[in-house]
């Protein structure tokens, strides 16, 4: 393994050694302090690299503009095959008229859907669900609101002012790569942003590449891949800022993490080499 000392640090040590020969190094404390300062920063990430939403300025003009910008890139979730919906229909009479719409078959016979245990329905490969009494209903490609409105339309012939509750219960997002807690996130609401997903995954690590955040999305049988730069505030208006069900987020590691994995002994050799350098310097100063 070939360990290299930064050029500026090597030059600094040579300068200190030459001064030692002339017995003047102790009269130059600023030189010693400068050496310690260099050591401190040789293995640290810069502060700028750990900051998001900045394009270089202390306060990005783009960020200021976005702080008052209307949100136009939020879209309602479009349902697709393999989504699972929980559906509950109630009526003003206490639920008597709605009962036929909530009876679902089970292995033990039948069950009446309730707020405690609503019936669930899988959207098949053709985008259809089969509801009690209502029959087949197209859900794929529609929003949750549109499915709810269609169910209300179907049951209104029997129930006046029906109440229909429709929820997507298998809404999930996967976060992989350089985050503190990679894994799958179960989303209980109808909206999640990439920032919320990263927060639930424990946020970035110091080795996360904030300029290359990948979002993998599949819909209508087509896979698309988007890339976000979280150091550029333009990502707020990206179509990938608001996530869709089954999106996969991948965070690349920076090159420093890759080098650490390829040569893990560097983790131990780096502090040892710094310590030996300091010892050598002290010996040179006071011998």
Compose a concise summary of this entry:
The chain has 287 residues and is an alpha+beta fold. It has helices at residues 7-21, 29-41, 61-66, 99-102, 144-155, 194-200, 255-262, 266-286; strands at residues 84-90, 103-106, 109-112, 119-122, 128-131, 135-138, 163-168, 172-177, 183-186, 208-219, 222-228, 248-253. The model has no long low-confidence stretch (mean pLDDT 78).
How would you explain this protein's 3D organization?
The model has no long low-confidence stretch (mean pLDDT 78). The chain has 287 residues and is an alpha+beta fold. A hairpin with a 5-residue loop joins strand 8 (172-177) and strand 9. It has helices at residues 7-21, 29-41, 61-66, 99-102, 144-155, 194-200, 255-262, 266-286; strands at residues 84-90, 103-106, 109-112, 119-122, 128-131, 135-138, 163-168, 172-177, 183-186, 208-219, 222-228, 248-253. It folds into 3 domains: 7-42 and 258-286, no CATH class; 84-168, wza like fold, CATH 3.30.1950.10; 171-253, Outer membrane lipoprotein wza fold like (Roll), CATH 3.10.560.10.
What is the count of β-strands?
12
Radius of gyration: 30 Å
- Beta percentage is 15-25%
CATH architecture title of the largest domain: 2-Layer Sandwich
Which descriptor suits the 3D outline? elongated
Question: Could you state the order of secondary-structure elements as H and E?
Answer: HHHEHEEEEEHEEEHEEEHH
Q: Might you state the CATH topology name of the largest domain?
A: wza like fold
Neighbour order of strands in the largest sheet: 9-8-12-10-11
- Helix/sheet category: alpha+beta
Total domain modules? 3
| CATH class wording of the largest domain | Alpha Beta
Pick out the low-confidence regions: none
From the N-terminal CA to the C-terminal CA, the straight-line distance is 32 Å
Give the overall average pLDDT: 78
The largest β sheet comes out as:
5 strands, mixed
The helicity comes to 25-40%
The CATH fourth-level homologous superfamily of the largest domain:
wza like domain
- Helix tally? 8
């Amino acid at each position: 393994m070939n360990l290299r000392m930064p050029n500026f640090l090597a030059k600094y040590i040579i300068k200190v050694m030459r001064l030692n020969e002339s017995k003047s190094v102790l009269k130059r404390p600023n030189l010693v302090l400068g050496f310690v300062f260099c050591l401190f920063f040789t293995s640290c990430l810069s502060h700028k690299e750990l900051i998001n939403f900045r394009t270089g300025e202390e306060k990005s003009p783009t960020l200021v503009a976005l702080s008052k910008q209307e949100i136009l890139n939020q879209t309602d979730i479009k349902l697709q095959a393999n989504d699972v919906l929980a559906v509950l229909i109630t009526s003003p009479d206490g639920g008597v008229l709605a009962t036929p719409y909530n009876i679902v078959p089970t292995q033990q016979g039948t069950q009446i859907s309730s707020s405690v245990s609503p019936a669930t329905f899988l959207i098949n490969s053709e985008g259809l669900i089969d509801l009690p009494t209502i029959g087949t209903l197209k859900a794929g490609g529609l929003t949750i609101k549109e499915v709810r409105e269609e169910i209300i339309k179907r049951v209104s012939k029997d129930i006046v002012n029906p109440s229909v509750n429709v929820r997507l219960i298998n809404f999930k997002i996967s976060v992989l790569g350089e985050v503190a807690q990679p894994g799958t996130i179960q989303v209980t609401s109808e909206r999640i942003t990439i920032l919320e997903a990263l927060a639930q995954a424990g946020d970035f690590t110091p080795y996360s590449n904030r300029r290359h955040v990948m979002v993998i999305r599949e819909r209508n049988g087509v896979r698309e891949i988007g890339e976000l730069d979280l150091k550029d505030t333009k990502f707020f208006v990206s179509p990938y800022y608001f996530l869709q069900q089954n999106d996969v987020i991948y965070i690349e590691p920076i090159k420093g993490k890759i080098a650490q994995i390829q040569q893990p002994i560097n983790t131990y050799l780096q502090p040892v080499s710094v310590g030996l350098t300091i010892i050598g310097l002290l010996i040179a100063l006071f011998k």
